[in-house]
Amino acid sequence: MVHSWWWGKDGGYRFLINGCKIGYRYQQRCSLVNIKFKWVKDSVLDAVVAGGRELKAACILVSIICSDHRCCLPVYHLSSRRGQLGLPHDLKISTFTRRYPTMFEEFYENDSGGTRVPWFRVTPEALNLHKEELLVFQQYQNDLLNRLRKLLMLTKNRTLPLQTIDQLKWDLGLPYNYLNSLIRHHPEHFSLVSLPDGRAGLRLLSWDDNLAISHLEKSSDFQTQEGVRNENLAFPVAFTRGFGLKRKCMKWLEEWQRLPYTSPYCDSSHLDPRTDVSEKRNVGVFHELLHLTLQKKTERRNVSNLRKALFLPQKFTKVFERHPGIFYISKKSDTQTVVLREAYERQKLIQKHPLVDIREKYVSLMKEGVLKRSTGMYKKKRDEYLDQMRNVCGDDFVDNRYTSEGESDHNPLSEYDSDEAPQNS
After folding, report:
1. Which of 190, 241, 319, 385 is at 20 to 30 A from 229, Cα to Cα?
2. Strand-strand pairing, 116-122 and 104-110
3. Single pTM value for the model
4. Domain that holds residue 53
5. Is the domain of 230 the same as that of 192?
6. How many domains does the chain have?
7. Which has more confidence, 173 or 393?
8. Are residues 219 and 237 in the same domain?
9. Quick check: 196 and 131 in contact, CB under 8 A?
10. What segments bear the compositional bias annotation Basic and acidic residues (predicted)?
């Protein structure tokens, strides 16, 4: 008996048994099976996630500072952007930047009221990395452009709020100022629109069939059987060592993998959301979304507001728990990060984008700064500089470039001990 699936012109799957069309009956009979998997810690993928929040915040701060024509900004200006950084609320921006002296230099300037205010600029090493990053953005502009186009093609109306895109732009590899550096240069693809709820949105103006092919479809290459497309595509699955998959769960998973695969770029309105076939479509959406990201991972909260846009059911993120062989939920850094298992060979990203190489260089620079602070090398270097200046200028020399280690959180001799803008009387 020959069982085959193919995509119909009306957007639905057709099922053949010995050449006879069955239509959608098979789909509607596959009810959603109540299978639960336990969460098992994966220390290898936890290591992939560790430090990601700090890296993102540091890189965004570099972009913000470099966007100023003087390449330096007061701490209260940086503090006003803290919502973009994803740092803990109890961590001051000044404290964070002082952790990485190889990336940020601190100095003081008086404001209009005469109060000494800490300012920050990037180090020459960080500036060189930023310039290298801008060059990669330019060289891979079409790739980044297509990632954004494919993201919008996943949505029901090819439209997303800018707020949602902003939450994903770091993962997608978009430049910090992507609206000016990317979107405005491609009016043939994008349009800024006002959404019904009053928010600003981005709309994709045209559909591209060449982009409407998922990563799973490309990797499977639509293997054919007796001249008919095989679209019962299975997802790559791997479990954490010691997972201990029960026989009942294994049998369900094998049957679930043999269900028809609905492309995330196709209309799925005909699917009953109470079926495993529909759930496989939902898994396919997130599988594709994670493949659009540079490092095949994103925070769970970044996709929590995509339900309506991606035509997903209530509690749609439960698919992450139900399919631990496809996704891993890391709980590092006081958040939940969804990682695509197949994208990693232990801690190594299998397909590495050039922007990931740049980020790894940032990580090395940050680690160097932490090491220098912990060993006192940074303080020694700064003290040598101060001694040289005092020898030249005498006892009247007053340093207004560097703050002492003791000023990181509180110094009674400092006139400014806040990340907020000073209140002048």
Report:
1. 319
2. antiparallel
3. 0.81
4. 48-130+361-407
5. no
6. 3
7. 173
8. yes
9. no
10. 398-412
